[in-house]
Amino acid sequence: MASEAGTYLYAVATDLDKPAPTDLTGVSGGAVRVISHSGLVAYVSTVSLDEFGEEPLRTSMEDLDWLSRTARTHHQVVETVAVSAPTAPVRLITVYSGDEQVEDLLRRRREDFSEVLARIAGRWEWGVKVYAEAVGPPSSPETAPGGGEETNPGTAYLKRRQASLRDREKDRRHAVAAADEIHETLSAYAVAARRHRTQDPQLSGRQEWMVLNGAYLIDGDNGEEFTRILDGLRKPGIQAELTGPWVPYSFTVTADAAGGPDGSG
Amino acid sequence: MAAGERGVAVREDLAAEQIALVDLLDRLLAGGVVISGDLVLSVADIDLVRISLHALITSVREGTALETLPTGGEQTWKAP
Questions:
Q1: Do A135 and A92 share a domain, yes or no?
Q2: Which Gene Ontology cellular component annotation is one that this UniProt entry carries (chain B) (predicted)?
Q3: Residues A128, A242: contact at Cβ < 8 Å?
Q4: Does A56 touch chain B (CB under 8 A)?
């Protein structure tokens, strides 16, 4: 077990018979190699199961530096190969026991991959994150409703607090509606659209409340137009952040018969 | 080739170092082709999403628990 090796899979791309990229380094320093079969090409590198076995990974995934390094390396490989051919990234950390298993995968799921690659060819993913600015400041004592009637300071406080919560709830509904509207408009323009879970403020590093974490698949020529459409949707109280173009990660989710957690699409 | 139309300038903005890790993980852990069977390991096998985010959280700021996981999400495609 000590020095067993595995084959780490990054992406599957259409085989355009181009030379494999050289000098591309994969996770844990292995050189990125190519496995071609059935008109597809898989990008892989050899990893040690001392690092990429199930047990070691339980610990590594708790290590932010390791996770960050691995995710960025994976992404770098995907980005590089996607420049020259339609590319379907594979989910982070997919490890096979050997190259033969990857070859078998290409053979077995050739149609799935071809279908996905056809859908994303020449298209890129754009990310749009919408934040509602710090809305709903607590009502100040002067404007608190029901002023004169309440002689009990405790009751008055509770009333003010209820009013403040009502305001915040109204603001939230407002922000959610604005986000839905933005998503609808962008989806109407996009080839495909997807809403990711919104990011927790602790992860996004922003105080504002995220109301939309959308992904939009856009034809290669239409990136600028998409940006313009988004700009037209900006309004006070709402901040929209654009990321991309990304390799279409969010639109290559498929799963084989055994299925993944959200691979039903 | 359509892939080239993305443009060099934009690509540089996307240099791996400049991307927020959380945006990357949204895609790497909730996107991409999911494969099972024949594998030594896939991220789907373990509840790594939760684990990794736990790691993220504690490093960003110690304290409160997190309930937002970047998994799932509705995917809609237009009819071809």
A1: no
A2: vesicle membrane
A3: yes
A4: no
Q: State the total domains in chain B.
A: 1
Residues A128 and A234 in one domain: yes
Q: pLDDT tens across A8-27, in order?
A: 999 999 999 887 777 899 99
Asked whether this complex has an ipTM greater than 0.90, the answer is no
Provide, as residue numbers in chain A, all residues whose Cβ is less than 8 Å from the Cβ of B6.
83, 124, 220, 223, 245
Rounded to an integer, the average pLDDT of A136-154 is 55
pLDDT digits (tens, 9 = 90+) for A222-253: 999 999 999 999 988 889 999 999 999 999 97
Q: Give domain status of residue B45, yes or no.
A: yes
Report chain A residues whose CB lies below 8 A from the CB of B60: 202-203, 205
Please state, in angstroms and rounded to a whole number, the distance separating the CA atoms of residues A56 and B48.
12
Which residues are within 8 A (CB) of A247 and not within 5 positions of it... i.e. 6 or more apart?
A78, A79, A82, A87, A89, A124, A125
Question: pTM to 2 decimals?
Answer: 0.78
